[in-house]
């Protein structure tokens, strides 16, 4: 019950931050200033330099089903292609849908103001989330990307430009942006995320060719 309560409280806090900063269009500087008054140590001082994460094998084998750590790859897709290694695990497996389970995700970052504050809340409440990053923001805020990784939270790909006209003009354009983003992340932390999320969702954007 204690863990469930902690999860619920943390989710409420994160939701409140997102609501204040984005949905109600409150001045984000005021939100940040209020957070700073709490005297929480900077994120880079809170997290250790050794991330608590897992990796796929060279054969793209996934960790065991009971793994609860973020999963990354030690190679980019292009590196796997050059080495003749598998680029996917080639099948499906069931996701975990247990009672009172919430998958907390944040899109379109990283951001040098909001993302560190969210990371502080997650750390304080002992909660993990997934951050779906755009390549352009990875290039802008590489230190924040390092903070996400070192904190043991997960990362996913969310295109490079987030420009629907560019991204969805063809399956090749879509894949190119995802690979550009994974390489941008790899250049910062030395590993790449293996999950992705389509900007705006797949409905209305994906044809059979995209799938």
Q: List the uncertain runs.
A: 11-48
Largest sheet: 3 strands, mixed
Q: Structural class of the secondary structure composition?
A: mainly alpha
**Into which percentage range does the β-strand content fall?**
5-15%
Number of domains: 1
What does the model show?
The chain has 211 residues and is mainly alpha-helical. The chain has a single domain (2-193), classed as TIM Barrel. 44% of the residues lie in helices and 9% in strands. The chain has helices spanning 2-23, 28-36, 43-46, 77-83, 114-125, 135-140, 142-150, 164-167, 171-189; strands at 54-55, 71-73, 105-109, 130-133, 154-157, 192-193. It has a three-stranded mixed β-sheet with strand order 1-2-6. It has a three-stranded parallel β-sheet with strand order 3-4-5. Mean pLDDT is 82; it is low at 11-48.
Summary?
The protein has helices at residues 2-23, 28-36, 43-46, 77-83, 114-125, 135-140, 142-150, 164-167, 171-189; strands at 54-55, 71-73, 105-109, 130-133, 154-157, 192-193.
């Amino acid at each position: 019950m204690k863990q469930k309560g902690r999860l619920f409280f943390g989710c409420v806090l994160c939701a409140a931050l997102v609501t204040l900063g984005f949905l109600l269009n409150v001045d984000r500087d005021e939100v940040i200033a209020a957070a700073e008054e709490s005297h929480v140590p900077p994120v880079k001082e809170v997290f250790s330099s050794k991330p608590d994460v897992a990796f796929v094998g060279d054969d793209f084998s996934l960790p065991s089903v009971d793994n609860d750590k973020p999963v990354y790859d030690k190679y980019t897709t292009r590196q796997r292609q050059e080495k003749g290694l598998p680029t996917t695990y080639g099948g499906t497996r069931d996701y975990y849908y247990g009672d009172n389970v919430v998958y907390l995700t944040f899109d379109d970052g990283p951001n040098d103001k909001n993302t560190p504050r969210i990371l502080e809340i997650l750390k304080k409440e002992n909660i993990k989330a997934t951050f779906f990053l755009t390549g352009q923001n990875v290039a802008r805020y590489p230190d924040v990307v390092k903070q996400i990784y070192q904190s043991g939270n997960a990362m996913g790909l969310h295109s490079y430009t987030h420009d629907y006209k560019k991204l969805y003009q063809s399956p090749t354009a879509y894949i190119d942006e995802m690979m550009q983003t994974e390489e941008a992340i790899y250049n910062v932390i030395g590993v790449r995320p293996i999950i992705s999320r389509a900007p705006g969702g797949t409905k209305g954007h994906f044809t059979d060719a995209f799938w």
